[in-house]
Amino acid sequence: MDATVKVLEAVASRFDLNLAMTSALMGGAAIDATGEPLPAATLDQCRASDAVLLACIGGYKWDDLPRATRPETGLLALRKQLGLFANLRPAKSFAQLEGASSLKDEVVNGVDLMVVRELTGGVYFGTPKGIDTDPSTGARVGYSNMVYHDYEVQRIARVAMDIAMKRGKAVVSVDKANVLEVSQLWREEVIKVAADYPEVDLSHMYVDNAAMQLVRWPKQFDVLVTGNLFGDVLSDCASMLVGSLGMLPSASLGDGSGPGVFEPVHGSAPDIAGQDKANPVACVLSAAMMLRYALAETDAADAVEAAVEAVLNAGWRTGDIMSDGKTLVGCKRMGELLVEAV
Amino acid sequence: MDATVKVLEAVASRFDLNLAMTSALMGGAAIDATGEPLPAATLDQCRASDAVLLACIGGYKWDDLPRATRPETGLLALRKQLGLFANLRPAKSFAQLEGASSLKDEVVNGVDLMVVRELTGGVYFGTPKGIDTDPSTGARVGYSNMVYHDYEVQRIARVAMDIAMKRGKAVVSVDKANVLEVSQLWREEVIKVAADYPEVDLSHMYVDNAAMQLVRWPKQFDVLVTGNLFGDVLSDCASMLVGSLGMLPSASLGDGSGPGVFEPVHGSAPDIAGQDKANPVACVLSAAMMLRYALAETDAADAVEAAVEAVLNAGWRTGDIMSDGKTLVGCKRMGELLVEAV
Ligand SMILES: CC(C)[C@H](C(=O)O)[C@@H](O)C(=O)O
Ligand SMILES: CC(C)[C@H](C(=O)O)[C@@H](O)C(=O)O
């Protein structure tokens, strides 16, 4: 985040943007300071802003806390409270990173897909949920209901269709309609919405097959639209096409009445925390998405993305994307290089 | 299945096994003949057998039937009725198929992992489930409850631990315990069972990360144990490590009081049905698992697996695993070659 703020300052100065940035605590840092993963003051501050740029929120230290005070609970609450039902996770291969993926070059070269993940519904938020213990036998049962309302499916389907219209006009909706009632509703509602987009080629794929197809031949995809849990899994799977989670930004958007949240797809990587090893690019590219989608500063967004390309072209690499003949740098230095490129 | 039955006949004659094989209708074929995807007569016949070898069950023709009479419903009923809670899906790379995977050779060479998937619980069978329509507004909601009882988790965890003891003694349990209550119960119960297996190295991974790690560096895995839905997705993902679903067998086992079901991981591939293009190896290797696990005919199982190796070594390939310099054959010819090799 430090690196990203500096990149934003640089781009603001270059394009004469009046970017007022404030910071607020969330996740582990907020738990340490206030006992809560999403303090009310933080939520208020987010609501009072045009956009929220989010760093990573967890770590070993907070892993054994009860569910209500875990960092992840704060993240889910932020998404829900801000009504961020649409999570956009682009996966675009970088020509400069040829060789970085575990997949063959011919499989990933030129991949350019967008996972549109529903973010405030499904099994993440459905009720009933809980763990019950039978008082007489001690037997336990855990349950989390996967629920979708028609309007939830419709609005995320519209987001996917609108995005597809600006891209390759092809949407694959991913579900498990051969087994799950909730997926049957999902599929029926997506089909209804698609009627308003005659130019978009809509097809359906079961989630098991989609995971496989993403690995087998990802270039078949333009836009994927899916539920919260399936999107969580498929977007992580898709990240491997690019070579590293360290390159992947995301945007979480609502109906436009409040701020969106922009964050890297990766987690806090507690195993390398504080070692100056992290790749700042995912966070920097999330800031570019923020400039583009939330602030409508297209030139500034383009400049940030061009800076990433330039730094990669010049051969600079963090450890996660390092390869023969390139120059290894830490997080801080990578950030400085990006600032210089802007 | 035709090819597999011939291989079984050959191996029975070589090892003087008294294999009594009968056949019964299920899925699409059963729907056409009786209107039901799993006729009672078929279930009775399965129950009266020592093992069930299952071919694929669906196709375009039956895709639009109501849920109760779809082919998949018959498959789920067979698993549930026979109490087949443990689905074993090995993914082992074949040296002969070097180059067949979309992943780099150094990533997949030597992969040998086992996905142990819970098969009769979770969101596939949980209640409540359904689609409700509000009579006044017409608004609809779909829901499928992901449910696990402690004993369901314990017994599948034991299966995974027992298998790990015969392999690399490492189990990764996959869940989404940072979000889902049902996963929290899952993790707690797996940890309890692991106490009885001090030699097994147990770790936990979130499902999104597991999907990514399977693609990033699959050799880190020995045994994965997970719930029904996560196992469905991860095992399809893992299949890509081997290069083709056409190579992947599976076993579905219960508590030993009734027959197990052995079936290829792949579906019926209606797009190539009847064209003599399918790879019979997954079904043949499922028969080998049947010989090994259900009939305790280890030598016969070894012979079938050796036949597959021999045919691959000799350069014979179906279309899904074809590469330069190899000889392309159809399903029928591949079956004959396997029979000859046995
Ligand atoms: C941290 C976790 C709650 C979160 C999720 O599952 O949504 C993360 O995996 C993500 O994808 O943003
Ligand atoms: C056909 C379908 C019901 C089935 C499942 O989801 O279990 C299949 O995908 C499988 O993995 O065996």
Number of strands of chain A: 12
The CATH architecture term of the largest domain in chain A is 3-Layer(aba) Sandwich
**Low-confidence blocks of residues of chain A:** none
Number of helices of chain A: 12
CATH superfamily of the largest domain in chain A: Isopropylmalate Dehydrogenase
| Averaged pLDDT of chain A | 96
GO molecular function (chains A, B): 3-isopropylmalate dehydrogenase activity; magnesium ion binding; NAD binding
GO biological process, one term (chains A, B): L-leucine biosynthetic process
Subunit structure (chains A, B): Homodimer.
InterPro entries (chains A, B): IsoCit/isopropylmalate_DH_CS, IsoPropMal-DH-like_dom, Isopropylmalate_DH
Notes on the protein architecture:
The structure is a homodimer of 342-residue chains. The longest helix of chain A has 16 residues, at 150-165. Chain A folds into two domains: 1-90 and 248-342, Isopropylmalate Dehydrogenase; 101-242, Isopropylmalate Dehydrogenase. The mean pLDDT of chain A is 96. In chain A, the strands form three sheets. An eight-stranded mixed sheet of chain A has the order 1-10-9-2-3-8-6-7, sandwiched between helices. A two-stranded antiparallel ribbon of chain A has the order 4-5. Chain A has a two-stranded parallel ribbon with strand order 11-12. Helices cover 41% and strands 18% of the residues of chain A. Chain A is of the alpha/beta class and 342 residues long. Chain A has helices at 2-15, 28-34, 40-47, 71-81, 105-108, 150-165, 181-194, 207-216, 228-242, 281-294, 298-313, 331-341; strands spanning 51-53, 86-92, 112-118, 129-133, 140-149, 170-175, 201-206, 223-226, 249-253, 260-264, 316-317, 327-328. In chain A, helix 7 links the parallel strand 6 (170-175) and strand 7 (201-206). At the A-B interface, strand 4, strand 5, helix 7, helix 8 and helix 9 of A face strand 4, strand 5, helix 7, helix 8 and helix 9 of B. The structure holds 3-isopropylmalic acid (IPM) (2 copies). One 3-isopropylmalic acid (IPM) sits between chains A (72, 75, 232) and B (178-179, 208). Chains A, B: One of its GO terms (biological process) is L-leucine biosynthetic process. Chains A, B: Its cofactor is Mg(2+); Mn(2+). Chains A, B: Catalyzes the oxidation of 3-carboxy-2-hydroxy-4-methylpentanoate (3-isopropylmalate) to 3-carboxy-4-methyl-2-oxopentanoate. The product decarboxylates to 4-methyl-2 oxopentanoate. Chains A, B: Homodimer.
